[in-house]
Amino acid sequence: MIVLKLILESFNFAFSSLKENKLRTFLSLIGITIGIMTIIGVFSAVDTLRNNLQSSVDKLGSNTVYVQKWPWEFGGDYQWWKYMNRPTPTLRDFEKVKERATNAEAVSYSVWAGNRTVKYRSNSVEGAEISAVTHDYYKTWSFDLEDGRYFSEAESKVGSPIALIGFSLAQGLFPNQRAVGKDIKVMGRNIKIIGVFKEEGEDMLGTSADKTILLPLNFARNVIDIQNEQYGPQISVRGKPGVPVEELESELKGIMRSVHRLSPKMDDNFALNKSTILTAQLDSMFAVVNLAGGVIGIFSILVGGFGIANIMFVSVKERTNIIGIQKSLGAKNYFILLQFLIEAVALCLMGGLIGLGIVYLLAFILNIVTDVDIIVDMSKVVLMFILSTAIGLISGIIPAFMASRLDPVEAIRSK
């Protein structure tokens, strides 16, 4: 109880000093506030960016492998001149993979043609992306329908002139009308709309289906060369539940090497891409960004810490006479030490709380203005308390120690 009483008295002395010197307290808070706001703001911005990118990556499917010409890996050692000479995936590759892949739940072949203008009477929408797919596409890519239905197997097989369109296209072409059942012209052909994708919104990888026109591959093959590289042919393979993606990837590698008749000494002339490749790259990229943000924030906090230490030295000098009186009345050294440590920590915590509050306010405003979900989780609150307490202890320990070691007689005589 005595120890608790002494700590409470130390708090009272510290906060009395802070209240008596409001301007000095405010100026001392600025450095810590800016430092905490910087480091928490940078980490929150990085977390927000990472979360949005990861959400985009998750759409690709954690157990789906994409057989393509170009690998998703990038960097200084990206051998584009080597990849450029690779063949594009063909329908023969697709048929062989579908026939031989025992770990695959579904296999689909798809091509796309972007930046098209679609018209319906007097309405038009620019930037539409036309995708032509085999029937099992719905098993290898996750999507929801706002209205209508997907292709039937018979429609896919005969190449019926039908399509599913994105939500934005439906809104732009058929305002206040139902899109399903209407006819539009795509690639010079009349197409009947049988379904509308649910609105997804634009993500950071551009994988939204809001401006997509999805056609049966057997219809598109009568209009374009579906094996031409300009249409980005790819084979999507979704693994069976419980099958590790590495096992599926290993099987696909063997199948593709066999289909392409590659000898053991020859390099792969195809790429097997998966979401974990992008995730790994995101991890390495954001590790660097976090480090850079941390360094910037730490320097900002250190500047604030030096400001707090300077103020504490001034505070000790001003209260030397009071310290002498306290000691002459029996105050112990640790009681004097606690006063100044608590004052330094309190200053830093106040600055940290203000900085954190500013970050939350900015996040709230940005959420409203930009409709982006800004992430400031509880770990940042804990980080703020840890950093503020640590800076307060480091900044205040030397002035507090000097104050606790003052000779009471000399201290009372000081002016």
If you had to describe this structure to a student in words, what would you say it looks like?
The structure is a single chain. The protein is α+β, with helices and mostly antiparallel strands and 415 residues long. It has 2 domains: 2-56 and 280-413, no CATH class; 87-269, no CATH class. The protein contains 14 helices and 10 strands. Strands 1, 2, 3, 4, 5, 6, 7, 8, 9 and 10 form a 10-stranded mixed beta sheet that branches. The model has no long low-confidence stretch (mean pLDDT 82). The chain crosses the membrane at residues 26-46, 285-313, 334-362, 382-403. It is a multi-pass membrane protein.
Proportion of β residues?
A: 15-25%
What is the CA-atom radius of gyration, in angstroms?
Answer: 33 Å
The helix content, as a percent range, equals 55-70%
Low-confidence stretches: none
Order of helices and strands: HHEHHEEHEHEHEEEHEHEHHHHH
Whole-Å distance between the termini? 35 Å
- Summed up, the domain count is 2
Mean pLDDT: 82
Number of helices: 14
The assigned structural class equals: alpha+beta
